[in-house]
Design goal:
Elements lengths: L8 E3 L10 H12 L7 H6 L2 H9 L13 H12 L4 E8 H11 L4 E5 L8 H11 L3 E4 L5 H6 L3 E4 L3 H6 L4 E3 L6 H8 L12 H5 L6 H28 L1 H5 L16 H22 L2 H19 L7 H21 L5 H24 L17 H23 L4 H4 L9 H17 L7 H7 L1 H19 L1
Parallel strand pairs: 1-2, 1-4, 2-3, 4-5, 5-6
Helix pairs in contact: 11-13, 11-14, 11-15, 13-14, 14-15, 15-16, 16-17, 17-19, 19-21
Length: 470
């Protein structure tokens, strides 16, 4: 047993020093890099939690520099360190992760962690600490820490639940931000649901918007796509934790910041998928359910693989927009014009490039976007390809309204020509704003909060109305 001038301070890692669980983080990295290895996980678990952690740690390297460390705990530990306290990182995380964290922070004098044969948790951790130090102080956060906290001289609790608070009324408590309803809504990204408004476009352009037998299925289709889209965003956030934490604004997302636990995100992802598919199948049609499933397949493929492929990622994003137009036509039993699909492909490719462009402009020290195959050297190419696709969309629209059958659909079709300069102005303007670094990384959110964009949208709707009914 070691002897110290003052009681050693032992600190837990998961949920205490960091606002996340490193095992779940490692699992997600494994899932992203080697999805095919999923079938091995049950066999690893059969050999015990320690073996399970060891196998994962052998295959992935967790980027400890981006973990969501709790600033209040770090400040407290720095004060204790300056006063000569012996600091111990005592965690059930694998020793590869624990040692990496200790090396990164340069705070701890010793590391006690799990290995292939022992899972350093609960009574096993308690016995190890008592054997090495006799007396110790401990900072923990969960009911799994109860055996250690009971034998600690001084207990410190991080974001404890009510049960822990009652068991240790004299413990020093470090409070932490707790998830609220607003936090959960942020995870769903409801502002992105506006994209699903594309399902109504076929209904509007066919001038059948007031027919209930077509409107109601489209409304249900919109809701189903909102659920599916939120599931996709949650999966993407979970697989992009490290990259998001390196981003100036994305680091505040609920999962990246550690406010929402990763297991809750996985459960929410599955729940949203089930709800979306059931809504599509029971309230709309089997073909529309197929469109939802295809959307989910494309989204999952994008999250796991395609988003790291240059150009392909942008094309997939544009296809996902056009896919919504197809789905809207199927929901309302309306044929989709090839002109509309061509227009949508060009305009949404422009917006997808805009998203990558703003991300590249926000890079500081790093020269590449994490988990994306783009570097700052690509800025000029993107700045050229992005607006060009937008202008091609306007050309497609101009060719469409020049057709001979326009007079049948729009008696006052002359008004449609005024849409072209509006689109030309809007596309050029958003690229100028992006070039000046005044664009947020999400063009959809920008459009929703930009008064000029709203003016353009209302003006286009008004011109369509005039062309049809004047």
């Amino acid at each position: 047993m070691q002897h110290f001038s003052q009681t050693p301070l032992c600190v837990d890692l998961d949920g205490t020093l960091v606002a996340t669980d490193t095992l779940w983080e490692s699992f997600l990295v494994l899932l992203r890099e080697y999805p095919w290895i999923l079938f091995l996980l049950p066999f690893w678990l059969l050999k015990g939690k320690a073996y399970f952690k060891h196998q994962i740690s052998q295959r992935v390297t967790l980027p400890v520099d981006t973990l969501p460390y709790r600033d209040e705990i770090l400040n407290f530990l720095n004060v204790q360190k300056s006063q000569g306290c012996y600091l111990v990182l005592a965690t059930a995380a694998h020793h590869h992760i624990a040692n990496a964290v200790a090396e990164y922070l340069k705070l701890f004098d010793e590391v006690i962690a799990s290995d292939e044969n022992s899972n350093m948790k609960g009574t096993q951790k308690r016995d190890k600490l008592r054997q090495k130090f006799g007396n110790y102080d401990y900072i923990g956060d969960s009911l799994a820490d109860l055996p250690i906290l009971y034998t600690a001289q001084q207990a410190y609790l991080v974001a404890p639940n009510q049960q822990l608070r009652k068991k240790f009324p004299t413990a020093y408590i470090f409070e932490a931000q707790k998830p609220t309803l607003k936090t959960w809504l942020r995870a769903l990204r409801p502002h992105q649901w506006v994209k699903n408004g594309l399902l109504f476009v076929p209904l509007m352009l066919s001038h059948q918007f007031l027919e209930p037998e077509k409107l109601y299925p489209t409304i249900f289709g919109f809701l189903a796509f909102c659920l599916a889209a939120s599931a996709g965003y949650i999966l993407n956030d979970l697989l992009d934790l490290s990259a998001d934490r390196s981003h100036s604004t994305k680091k505040e997302r609920p999962f990246a910041s550690g406010i929402l636990p990763i297991p809750y995100g996985l459960l929410l992802f599955v729940g949203l998928l089930i709800a979306s598919i059931n809504l599509a199948f029971w309230q709309i049609s089997f073909p529309f359910t197929g469109m939802i499933l295809l959307y989910l397949i494309m989204t999952v493929t994008y999250s796991f693989y395609l988003k790291r492929k240059m150009i392909l990622d942008v094309m997939v994003l544009a296809i996902l927009y056009s896919h919504r137009l197809f789905a809207g036509g199927i929901a309302a039993s309306i044929d989709i014009s090839s002109w509309l699909l061509a227009f949508s492909m060009f305009i949404f490719t422009s917006l997808a490039f805009l998203k990558r462009y703003t991300e590249l402009l926000q890079l500081s020290e790093e020269k590449i976007i994490k988990n994306r195959n783009y570097s700052v050297a690509d800025i000029e190419m993107i700045a050229s390809a992005g607006p060009t696709n937008g202008y091609l969309a306007i050309l497609v629209f101009a060719l469409y309204i020049s057709g001979e059958n326009m007079a049948q659909l729009y008696p006052a079709g002359f008004f449609l020509w005024f849409i072209c300069p509006l689109l030309l102005y809007w596309i050029t303007r958003i690229w100028f704003i992006a070039h000046r670094k005044q664009m947020v990384d999400d063009p959809v959110w920008f459009a929703l909060t930009d008064r000029t964009s709203w003016f353009v949208i209302v003006s286009i709707v008004g011109l369509l109305f005039l062309a049809k009914f004047l």
